[in-house]
Amino acid sequence: MNRNILFAVIFFISINQKVRAQQNVSLVTADIDHFWVAYDKIIATKDTVAQYAYLNNLFIQKGTPGLKAMMQARSYTAKSYIDAISQKQAYFNSIRKNTLRVNDYATAIASKISILKQLYPALKPAEIYFTIGAFRSGGTTLGNMVLIGSEIAMDDEHLDNLVFTNIHEYVHTQQKTSMGDNLLAQCVLEGVAEFISEQAMSTHSTLPALAFGKSNPVTVKQDFATQMFNTGNGFWLYSNAENQFGVRDLGYYVGYAIAQRYHLNTIDKTKAIKEMIELDYNNMEALYNYVDQSGYFDKKVKSLKRAYEKNRPSVINGIVTKSEHEIDSLNYKITVKFSKPMDKRYRSFEQGPLGQDSSMRIKKVIGFSEDGKSAEFEVELKPNKRYQLVIGEGFRDLNGARIKPYLIDFKTGNE
What we know:
This protein has about 425 residues and is α+β, with helices and mostly antiparallel strands. It has 15 helices and 11 strands. The protein folds into 3 domains: about 25-175, no CATH class; about 185-310, no CATH class; about 315-410, Sandwich (Immunoglobulin-like). Helices cover about 40% and strands about 15% of the residues. The strands form 3 sheets. A 4-stranded mixed β-sheet has the order 1-2-4-3, with helices on both faces. A hairpin with an 8-residue loop joins strand 5 and strand 6. Helix 6 crosses helix 8. The longest helix is centred in the middle third of the chain and has 19 residues, at about 185-200.
């Protein structure tokens, strides 16, 4: 993704050089060459010290800004790469030929970005980096950089979608944020990128989630409405978590369907695309207005928000007691009672306002009650000290709605 392309005249100099484009697109591919040089050295020795030296000297230290950004975005370390190479050597060998064909896709990417520029005249320059990672992302963004994880995006399964993936991520570089404050915001910004990519590509997205959503619009919409104000993504985005639909990433479909309806309902299509890209996704007033104008939900978003808050699970109380059979022990039991049955698969704890010094360490998870309306945990505490623990939003009810955070704050007695 990092090569500069001159769209009317494409200069192919070498895979690690840049090709310039009339719309200031930059595709940089140097990291791919560097990786394979390091890779050949790494697999030729079993000396781990030498392997790390080859990786650092021949790949990481020579890395483009895109590689550094990808490593930052996905928390890659040198160990991540050495582990991936040692565990998936056969896979790396299988994708090598594809990654070395990256130049073959430069013209197509430049052409589609040119069309994107026609759809959205305010398109800002962005740099596209073809990097190689350690299997945590096939594509993401950081600032004005599109970061393609070629080890995923350029395997045989995903290669046909490589240009589409680039356009989708390029749209993200034009948006105000890549992180929504709640599930609805995150799905909307992903859906906008997916819908506008279809417009630029003049082809349909191949995401299985879109096909499933179009065939099951009512049930997907109903379930989404009960969870869309959660601060976490749940199974709706970026997750293989088990769910009632048996399909991952259905949040892309919801955001896409909202964008599609908004575009359909707006007479000036160029204006619609501009408004979707430039929407402040974390301005709830603007976000709710956009979703309402799409007509996707049968009710106004604020009405759905009130219903969500009314039905959201809460903690009735959190009781801390000394372990019954260990009077002289430092072991305490926390019993948390909930307003409704909870999904026993999920839980989370957070520090209170006093921070690390007053936080409790969960020593043992005793478990949920049979009806899911209470849970018990064992903690080890010191005498005569104030402690805090937040029952976090990882707890959720059977419909996936996340709990209102609850602070447990108490002081132990003298032993």
